[in-house]
Amino acid sequence: MFFPRLVIPRLAPKASFLHPRAFTTTASRAKLTPKQIQIVKSTIPALEEHGVAITTLFYKRLLQEHPELKNIFNTAHQATGEQPAALAHSVWAYATNIENPGALKTAISRIGHKHASLGITADQYPIVGQGLLAAIKEVLGDAANEQVLDAWAAAYGELAGYFIKFEADLYRQAEATPGGWKGWRKFFISKKVNEGEEIISFHLTPTDKGIVPVYQPGQFVSVKCFVPELGVYQPRQYSLSDVPNREYFQISVKKEFALGPKPAGRISNVLHEGLPVGAELDVSMPFGDFVLDVNATTPAVLISGGVGLTPMMSMLKTIVDQGTPRRVVFVHAVRNGRVHAMKDRLATIISENPQVHRAVFYEEIGSEDKQGVDYDFEGRADLHKIKDQAVLPDADYYICGPKLFMNAQSKSLKSMGVAEDRIHMEVFGSPSE
User: Fold this and answer.
1) Which intervals hold domain FAD-binding FR-type (predicted)?
2) Is 141 left (phi over 0), alpha (psi -120 to 50) or beta?
């Protein structure tokens, strides 16, 4: 639980790692008592001050005791501290909302979909809970007395129950879907398509030659491949970038480079340079709750930055394939024309569908970039410049891109009177940022 990209395999507990306290995550679990709720709430200041220290210790011990887990953790998020920060934020958010679990519905859905894409199961939750309690005890010392630990054990068990039920429902739906499965399925790269200088689209076809399931536009799959420089397997989520078909999935992957303390995108580099056509890799079922409302007839405004356009192209193609007059505004921000992926496809869709309008922002204008053909505005995305075009009655707004980009666009929309429940964003990283 709490982990956007974490999966814990079935492991035998090790006494040096686990606090000796039993967890129950079944329907027979006793509910939190009012006293336990108050104790958990009383720890909120400690979580604010020491939360990252607790979660950092938790991960350190987990990987020391179980080095095989390095095969399934996103090492970049460990190196930058993003994973411990995400977990610390989630623990704090739960404590803050412990009397109103309904407020966690969105977070449980988002994280639950990520968990399902990694095959997390109910019997893995107690291992995480015991590890967290051990870290809480060590960091907080005498302040984490028996009452505090008992309260947090009960609280963890209750929240784990929410996740277990949610994820079990997802697994049932996946296996009931024609062509669906649970866990990992072997695929091979059947085609690679260059999309500008930085992005390659991969067609992923099942090695068993079976059909692939229909998915909702905006969803993602987890892909797991071997990273030679780490000597381990690594998972990564990628949005599906085309409309469903029965033969293959399409993901579009940006080659990433080292930036400050963040290492280069190892998985993206392996996909770009290390896996030729024909190479095999593990793929999950499509999951994710950032999805287009395909039954709506009101306008859709699709706002993307960089490689964030991948789910937007799936949404856009879905709408035009429906053959309805539904209005679409496609807003995209990118550095320049050389890295503007799927530019020609977008131009074709717009030329053939008069109800689709675009607003493309280039930060840099190259010598071959033509305004009105390749791009529309110079500079970073500024929704205020296109307010009359983009802020429409009853429209839904879908945003995907870097976190700072999404936050900026959401803030702009709200400042122009757009209701928060009309704004939908895909978040692959820490919810604390």
Assistant:
1) 182-293
2) left
For the chain, list the domains and their CATH numbers: 34-176 (1.10.490.10), 184-287 (2.40.30.10), 300-427 (3.40.50.80)
- In order, the DSSP letters of 81-119 are THHHHHHHHHHHHHHHTTT-GGGGHHHHHHHHHHHHHTT
Cα dihedral sign for 8, 135, 89, 253? negative
Catalytic positions, written as ranges:
125, 167
Burial-class residue 246 by CB neighbours within 10 Å (0-12, 13-18, 19+). Answer: exposed
Amino acid at 15: A
Residue range 387-408, pLDDT digits in tens: 999 999 999 999 999 999 999 9
- Asked whether 176 and 124 are in contact (CB, 8 A), the reply is no
Contact at 8 Å (CB) between 122 and 25?
yes
- Its pTM stands at 0.89
Residue pair 389/359 in contact (Cβ under 8 Å)? The answer is yes
Q: Cβ–Cβ contacts within 10 Å for residue 340, how many?
A: 25
| Both tokens assigned to 34 | 């009012």
